[in-house]
Amino acid sequence: MSNSKEGAFEKQIKHVLQKRCICLVECDIKKYQTAINAILQNISHTKHPCIYVAITKSYQQLVSTRKKKMNMSQVFVIDCISKASGVGSATPNIVYVENPGSLTAISLAINAALNTSNFKILFLDSITSLRMHNNETQIQRFLQYLVTRLKHADTGAILLSLNDENTKKILPVIAQFCDEAMLLK
After folding, report:
1. Which end of the chain, N or C, is less surrounded by CB atoms within 10 Å?
2. Calpha distance 172→6 (Å, rounded)
3. Is residue 126 part of a domain?
4. What CATH number is attached to the domain comprising 149?
5. Which positions ≥6 away from 45 have C-beta within 8 Å?
6. How many Å apart are CA 18 and CA 126, to the nearest integer?
C-alpha cells in the first residue's frame, strides 16, 4: 500500500473509532496484515477498552505480535482458535470459545463482556474465517444480531473481511447492517 493510501485508510479508521459506528472493512489478501496493524494501532491510540474477537489468530499470536505496540490490559479477547488445539487457560481478559463455528458461544461471550464493562469498540477478525466454519445464512443472522446488540450498547465495531470468493455473496448484505463500509485495495 502506498503511504498516501495507508494514511487515508488510517484516517478513515480513526474517524470510525471516534464516531463509534459499525464499519465493514473489506480488503484483499495483500493488504490484510496492513489493515489489521492499522486497525489495532488506531484502537490502541483511542485508549478505550476493546473487545477483540480473534477468529484468525490465537490470543498468544496476538500478544506476541502486539505486546510492545498495544496495551493489552485494555483488550478483552474472545479467542476462537486456541481451545480447539488444547491451548488456553483462564485469564481475566480472555475467553476461549470452542471454534469459529460456535456462533452461539461467541455471542454469549460478547454479551457477557458488554454486560460487565464499558467497551467502546469491538474488532472482529474476520468474517472470512467465520464463513469457512458457517454457512451464509448463519453468518448473516449472527452479524445482524451482533450489529443490533452493539448499537444498543453504544459500542462501535470494525468487521474485517477479505474480499474473496468465500464472502462475495454475503458482504453486500452485511454492509446493509453497517453504518459505513470501506474497501482497501
Report:
1. C
2. 24
3. yes
4. 3.40.50.300
5. 14
6. 21
